[in-house]
Amino acid sequence: MSIFKNKKSFEELPTHIAIIMDGNGRWAKKRSLPRTAGHAAGSKNFKEIARYANKIGLKYLTVYAFSTENWKRPKDEVDNIMNILRDYLKDAKNFKDENIRVKFIGDIDALDEDIRLLIDDAEKESENATGLKLNIALNYGGRDEIVHAVKKIVESGIPADMINEDTIGNNLYTAGMPDPDFIIRPSGEYRLSNYLIWQSAYAEYWFSDILWPDFRPKHLDMAIEDYLKRNRRYGGI
Description:
Blueprint: H1 3-6, E1 16-20, H2 24-30, H3 35-55, E2 60-67, H4 75-90, H5 93-97, E3 101-105, H6 113-126, E4 133-140, H7 142-156, H8 165-169, E5 182-185, E6 204-207, H9 217-227
Parallel strand pairs: 1-2, 1-5, 2-4, 3-4, 5-6
Helix pairs in contact: 2-3, 3-4, 4-6
């Protein structure tokens, strides 16, 4: 049972949670399984957490699915991740039925054409959903995103003395969205790994040793419960 049913009101939820879905490979290794099994388990768990986030009334959820650095992994592992992505996209209509709006952020143009077409279909199919706004960071890197934003600003011809933080923010992949209030990273790692580095300037963090395929709704509850105890001062007193 969710903590929010009896203890917390939905209004107290952070507006935007971002998750680094980490630990799939280690999860598989612990079970003497191939890394591909870990990615399959992680993908299944992502769907469960996304649906739960929608159920409890979260407005925005952004998940780190594949980074610009992940191309360095063995080709067969990358190919497997892309095939899992294809399967998810073909099944994305289920998120539409659950009133979840899906958006992909990152350098989508670098992906195979069939994946780009599936992404376009998934976004269009869910564009009228009014529940959870689910952002999937795919071929995403925080530094790459800032470079991409700067190039857009230069190409638009905005004079240097007219550029401010809003100008940058309005040209990021997340333009029009609130910055994440809370970033969760399971798996025992304690770093941001080039994820939402502009947007996370004032985010709160929650780390745990739980590997992503083992991360359950009860763990999301625990993380949010911890978040609600914190005092966010944004540089003030």
